[in-house]
């Protein structure tokens, strides 16, 4: 729902995920998932 051009993208995703995740937490998890599907 939050495109790469959305301001505060990772903060919005972290808020939607809940569980006291930070913007950096969800961004790192996203990077790990990208890595998993590429290799």
TrEMBL record:
SUPFAM superfamilies documented for this protein: Homeodomain-like
Q: Which GO terms describe its biological process?
A: green leaf volatile biosynthetic process
Which CDD domains does the UniProt record give?
SANT (cd00167)
The Myb-like domain covers: 8-34
Species of origin: Solanum lycopersicum
Q: What is this protein called?
A: RADIALIS-like protein
Q: Which gene encodes it?
A: RAD2
Q: Which UniProt keywords apply?
A: Nucleus, Transcription, Transcription regulation
User: Listed GO molecular functions?
Assistant: DNA-binding transcription factor activity; transcription cis-regulatory region binding
Q: Where is the signal peptide?
A: none
């Amino acid at each position: 729902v939050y495109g790469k051009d959305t301001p505060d993208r990772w903060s919005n995703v972290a808020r939607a995920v809940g569980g006291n995740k930070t913007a950096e937490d969800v961004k790192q998890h996203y990077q790990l998932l990208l890595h998993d599907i590429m290799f």
